[in-house]
């Protein structure tokens, strides 16, 4: 078993930014489980399935095979052998991932992939159910969050910097909807594990959050 760090939290809390930095500092691999759900979402969207087609997710996702590779230390997501890492970062795919990850069959497809990575490697794995469901015995668990306003503002800045036109109120509404769905679904909902450390990053710098998590790891090593 590798040394396992689980970071869960809502959309836009900065999980991936922080998890990448922590992984680099600790020389662990970073596993982005959201990207795996996004790959399945892309597969469903390509089949013409919509986020509201709930009863189609289970049967239609069966042909999707998700795997990952590391190129220069960066996770690449493969969907049936195609590298889709550059195609899964849109709001459309993110919203579809939130909708389709409610389905037990979709989640089942990714369970072994995630657990095996953690068994074979020292990992920082981020997602929604890592500390509660995927790696209940993780060495360090963190629940990382920030206010909806702050998370929306971060995403707005990120998109604007990339030159993507966007509207702050729409982003805020999308994030609130995603929270609602991710936290209230029946299977593996987003919630803080009892033994997770709670970090609200609203008023913290990236460096401060990274250091807080590295301190938690150092205390367990
Ligand atoms: O972290 P993200 O925005 O890339 O995740 C996209 C969606 O995937 C998220 O809204 C819910 C789902 N997800 C999940 O259900 N469980 C995970 N461990 C990771 C993501």
Note down, in words, how this protein is organized.
The chain folds into two domains: about 1-30 and about 120-220, P-loop containing nucleotide triphosphate hydrolases (Rossmann fold), CATH 3.40.50; about 35-120, Rossmann fold (3-Layer(aba) Sandwich), CATH 3.40.50. It starts with a strand and ends with a helix. It has helices at about 15-25, 35-45, 55-60, 90-100, 105-120, 130-135, 150-160, 170-185, 205-220, and strands at about 5-10, 30, 65-70, 75-80, 80-85, 125, 140-145, 195-200. α2 packs antiparallel against α5 (about 105-120) and α7 (about 150-160) packs across α8 (about 170-185). The strands form two sheets. A five-stranded parallel β-sheet has the order 2-6-1-7-8, sandwiched between helices. The protein has a three-stranded antiparallel β-sheet with strand order 3-4-5. It has nine helices and eight strands. About 50% of the residues lie in helices and about 15% in strands. It is globular and about 50 Å long. It has about 220 residues and is α/β, with parallel strands linked by helices. 2'-deoxycytidine-5'-monophosphate (DC) binds next to α2, α4 and α8.
Keywords for this entry:
221 residues; Rossmann fold; 5-stranded parallel sheet; 3-stranded antiparallel sheet; alpha/beta; 8 strands; single chain
Can you tell me the CATH architecture of the largest domain?
3-Layer(aba) Sandwich
Outline, from the CA principal axes? globular
Q: Ranges with pLDDT <50 over ≥5 residues?
A: none
β-sheet strand percentage: 15-25%
Total strands: the figure is: 8
CATH fold-level topology of the largest domain: Rossmann fold
